[in-house]
Amino acid sequence: METQTIKMNIAPSSDNGHFVEGKNVQVVNLDKINETYVVTGKSTLTTGNHTSLEMEETCIVTCQQVYDPLKGVFEKSRD
Q1: Which one, 14, 28, 49, 73, has the greatest CB density within 10 A?
Q2: Helix, strand or coil, per DSSP, at residue 46
Q3: What is the pLDDT of residue 44?
Q4: How is residue 15 annotated by DSSP?
């Protein structure tokens, strides 16, 4: 089996992007609007404005939701 290294932006709405990097990693987009992905395989989540995160197992990655008390709703967190 051939080994492939991928680098995929899983937060296109982010100013800096959030990239999953690894060999033989599978990334499945579950929800394009909320930017929710399933990442299978050992990988690293990197970005310019946060600490890198080592992911050893299958993970679900989604954008952080924050509560706006003035609007009374949850919204996608912004950089």
Answers
A1: 14
A2: strand
A3: 95
A4: S
Cβ of 26: how many Cβ atoms within 10 Å?
13
Closest CA to 26 of 15, 36, 37, 40: 40
Read off the pTM.
0.78
Q: What is the tally of structural domains in the chain? A: 1
Higher local confidence (pLDDT), 37 or 12: 37
43, 72, 79 from 48: Cα distances, Å: 17, 31, 11
- What is the domain extent for residue 18? 5-76
Reported as a single tens digit per residue, the pLDDT across 24-45 is 899 999 999 889 999 999 999 9
Helix %, strand %, coil % for the chain, to 5? 0, 50, 50
DSSP character for 11? -
